[in-house]
């Protein structure tokens, strides 16, 4: 990894080439199903930093190179998180689908400098107090209950019945909410809507409902603290006010639930479709760990992250980036960058991927470890209960969710020998 971004990438268009000004739309079925092919074509035509068009043809830069993503995330003084710098706000409609991603909120996601370090410290200390053995035990208990609901039928659709509900129940329990119930189910539904809305759905309204529910939670925990992440954030010596804790609890829940669910689903897909794992997966814990890490390289749950905003005019990968330009980080493309890994991604034993980002705004310690506990326990628990589980359709029939941001299956049908309890 270099300390500075390369000024020009081999094979990229030279300065002044018309390709520099031609944005590529981040949409379309082909992209949603096989994004790696789009990354390859963008890299071929534009180099490590490509001009793209977001919803409503809003221009941005997609950073594809491993070194370039590392550079952006390591230089907050050039590429910062406060989205109010964006030079495109006048063109953004009030119902823009990506507003939940980029609309400024005074949360740990968007604040900068000393304020960010303060807020990230509060989140890290609250998460660090989670007993990982207890979390694994809780996830196994949740998994047991979920599997019991379909084990007798001999078939299941694992995304809806297992991969999504397990981390959801785990993370809301960590934050001090009931692990199940109408209130919790509505919260998770609205989180999904706000972060990955389908056509006709209102992500902005959904985010408003999420905020209202977490405001109630924070008020309850301020009055009667418990042994949970929300209470620890409220009681932290940093003395954050309720508004700050609300925003940061939302961030913790959103960051933990859907990406972890897709990590579980993508790992199960790999285990069920790749012959390398077929002989050792049942009870083979090393194999599960390798699969989890390989997924972070090849099918990382957070494909693209929006984003960073240029603090001033600068260069990146041979591009002239203007002050206020939006920079989208393609973790998926960076993890498979042939400039860094000419023989392919570094492999299941190497953890130098960028799936948890990098730099000061990376996923805070120990969140990646907690996500690993949840995902690993989920996969191992399923394999323990259903050792002969097989894919219910041909591998090519599996459908990915139509999202340029998340990489996750729409469904994962399986069959197995019925288990009677």
UniProtKB/TrEMBL annotation:
<dbReference type="InterPro" id="IPR036396">
    <property type="entry name" value="Cyt_P450_sf"/>
</dbReference>
<protein>
    <submittedName>
        <fullName>Cytochrome P450</fullName>
    </submittedName>
</protein>
<dbReference type="InterPro" id="IPR002397">
    <property type="entry name" value="Cyt_P450_B"/>
</dbReference>
<comment type="similarity">
    <text>Belongs to the cytochrome P450 family.</text>
</comment>
């Amino acid at each position: 990894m270099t300390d500075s971004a390369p000024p020009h990438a081999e094979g990229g268009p030279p300065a002044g080439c018309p390709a520099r000004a031609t944005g590529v739309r981040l949409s379309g079925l082909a992209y949603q199903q096989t994004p790696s092919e789009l990354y390859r074509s963008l890299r071929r035509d534009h180099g490590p930093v490509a001009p793209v068009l977001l919803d409503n043809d809003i221009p941005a830069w997609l950073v594809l190179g491993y070194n370039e993503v590392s550079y952006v995330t390591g230089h907050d003084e050039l590429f910062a998180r406060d989205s109010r710098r964006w030079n495109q706000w006048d063109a953004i409609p009030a119902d823009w689908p990506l507003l939940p991603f980029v609309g400024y909120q005074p949360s740990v996601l968007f604040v900068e400098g000393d304020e960010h370090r303060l807020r990230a410290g509060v989140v890290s200390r609250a998460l660090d107090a989670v007993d990982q053995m207890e979390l694994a035990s809780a996830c196994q208990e949740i998994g047991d209950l979920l599997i019991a609901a379909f084990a007798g039928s001999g078939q299941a659709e694992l995304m809806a019945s297992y991969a999504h509900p397990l981390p959801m129940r785990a993370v809301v329990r960590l934050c001090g909410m009931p692990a199940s119930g109408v209130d919790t189910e509505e919260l998770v539904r609205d989180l999904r809507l706000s972060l990955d809305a389908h056509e006709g759905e209102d992500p902005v309204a959904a985010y408003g409902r999420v905020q209202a529910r977490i405001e109630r939670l924070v008020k309850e925990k301020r009055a009667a603290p418990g042994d949970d992440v929300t209470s620890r954030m409220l009681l932290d010596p940093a003395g954050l006010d309720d508004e700050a804790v609300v925003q940061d609890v939302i961030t913790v829940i959103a960051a933990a639930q859907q990406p972890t669910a897709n990590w579980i689903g993508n790992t199960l897909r790999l285990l069920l479709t790749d012959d390398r794992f077929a002989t050792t997966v049942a009870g083979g814990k090393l194999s599960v760990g390798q699969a989890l890490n390989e997924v972070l390289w090849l099918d990382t749950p957070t494909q693209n992250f929006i984003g960073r905003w240029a603090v001033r005019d600068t260069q990146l990968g041979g591009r002239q980036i203007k002050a206020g330009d939006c920079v989208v980080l393609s973790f998926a493309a960076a993890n498979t960058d042939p400039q860094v890994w000419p023989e392919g991604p570094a492999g299941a034993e190497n953890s130098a991927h960028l799936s948890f980002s990098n730099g000061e705004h990376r996923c805070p310690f120990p969140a990646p470890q907690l996500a690993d506990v949840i995902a690993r326990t989920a996969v191992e628990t399923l394999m323990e209960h259903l050792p002969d589980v097989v894919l219910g359709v041909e591998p090519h029939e599996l459908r990915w969710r139509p999202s340029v941001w998340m990489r996750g299956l729409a469904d994962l049908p399986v069959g197995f020998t019925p288990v009677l309890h």
